[in-house]
Design brief:
Chain lengths: 291, 291
């Protein structure tokens, strides 16, 4: 098993909050370039209500497009053979987002997850608002661990804890993931942080130290959750990859294609996006003396 | 001894790269408001060549102003009773910055430091470019540790490692500070990170874990070193304090006065500054439900 698995969620979690609906051909162009980087998984979209998230209306079309394209199977493992399903750990967030209580939402998700797995897919189940909620504030750790335990009881062991609104801090990340791994040391842990308050990278670092394998991030730091009161961008993929590179990790994945997509996206949306590296470039190995 | 000591360097390292020279009365207003937050130390300026850094030309005047003002003694411990002196760990950076080799610069700094201490002041000595250099790229850890050893041999045990150009990564921060503390467990370690590539907060977190006590940062994330090829802002004071607050640390220090100064500075310079929290505000404890 790899120490770090890179899961690019920009085309889903990055775009779903944008008002301007990105056309399918632009998404396809970005997806192709992202796949060239060698990231392990790319989320193409989400099968949600078209009226609630019009940005995701073309998800079927996108999948159709790429299923007929050779050479992209690897980048497209996610969503075709790998499903991501989740519920919120906040009762208010759950009801606003899905109209269901946490317990109802989890029953449903677990059934869907087991059906997907029976059909041969890998399934990741997530706990959203695992580190706090805009409506409820603190979300008790026990509440998150209860949800995780029910996933584990159902045999679902690929588990993502998502910091939907950016409230996580590294000490809490360490503690919560350690407690998940105490429940079952075989859990494959994923993390999904938002950089609302500038803590995205520090939380990823704490997660790595706690034994997390899967890191979800979005090119250019795009995104946020449209159903919460405070929104903020995802951890920026190229900034995170740049950190891993500087630590000698995942140097097999290229920064350039991701930086290209982020520059393209900044031009497309005509605004500066949160990511740093697409603006600064990576740390140069050595610069010539100026004087 | 406190676990975390907050050292505000914005009026020095934050302003020295700015082209527009900030008038003394504006600096004084910012210094007063920063002191109200309860940060432990505030750098008012730097005694450098006026032609090289015109921003620091009024340092004497500023000190004069505050020495006559009651109630600010605590905030002004730094620079009056506490001197910060440093050299670079990069031969090229040292020669460009001071015209001296590392060895020559250190001889001089050590003499000055011992004289200041003999006069009753506390003295912090630093190693700049301790984690990399724009001219030389990687700076060998042994080179940094040699400089630290010479400080320790001279009896100077308040030691700051500065990441002048933002090349540090958390793994390296942990390793280098651990090695410093292996040289002498009694060293009072300070860290000074720049956020050029978005790694400022993650490096502070790693430093805390490694046993570092003093954290140098600048309001609004202002600043950078004018004598290096790549420049970037300091770690942002209010973003760092916000992280500590969320971890239950240094809740005795107020965020609001620092945020005020950062907003004032952004208006003064008529541009968006790097800090996040002065724009987003801190994480609210609980938000009322919207629906």
């Amino acid at each position: 098993m790899r120490e770090i698995v890179l899961h690019e969620v920009g085309l889903r979690d990055g775009l779903q909050i944008e008002r301007a609906v990105v056309p399918t051909d632009v998404k396809a162009r970005w997806a192709r370039r992202l796949a060239e980087s060698g990231v392990d998984m790319i989320q193409l979209g989400s099968f949600v209500h078209q009226e609630k998230v019009p940005q995701m209306a073309d998800t079927d079309e996108l999948f159709g497009l790429f299923l007929n394209e050779k050479g992209l199977e690897r980048g497209l493992a996610c969503g075709v053979r790998y499903f991501c399903l989740g519920i919120s750990a906040s009762e208010t967030h759950s009801r606003k987002n899905t109209g269901m209580s946490i317990a109802e939402a989890q029953d449903r998700i677990v059934k869907t997850a087991l059906a997907a797995r029976a059909a041969g897919a890998a399934v990741q189940v997530s706990v959203q608002s695992a580190f706090g909620c805009s409506y409820e504030g603190e979300v008790p750790e026990e509440q998150v661990l209860d949800i995780v335990s029910r996933y584990l009881d159902a045999g679902l062991t690929m588990i993502s804890l998502a910091d939907t609104v950016g409230h996580a801090t590294p000490d809490r990340v360490t503690r919560l993931f350690s407690r998940v791994l105490q429940l079952d040391a075989q859990v494959e842990c994923a993390c999904h942080f938002h950089d609302t308050y500038g803590l995205g990278l520090v939380n990823c670092y704490a997660a790595l130290e706690a034994g997390v394998t899967y890191f979800e991030s979005a090119f250019a730091g795009l995104g946020g959750c449209p159903f919460t009161a405070v929104t903020g961008g995802n951890v920026c993929t190229e900034d995170l990859l740049h950190l891993w590179h500087r630590m000698g990790k995942r140097t097999d994945v290229s920064l350039d294609p991701i930086v290209d997509v982020s520059r393209d996206a900044a031009a497309y949306f005509s605004r500066e996006l949160p990511g740093k590296i697409y603006k600064t470039g990576p740390i140069p190995p050595v610069r010539p003396a100026l004087g």
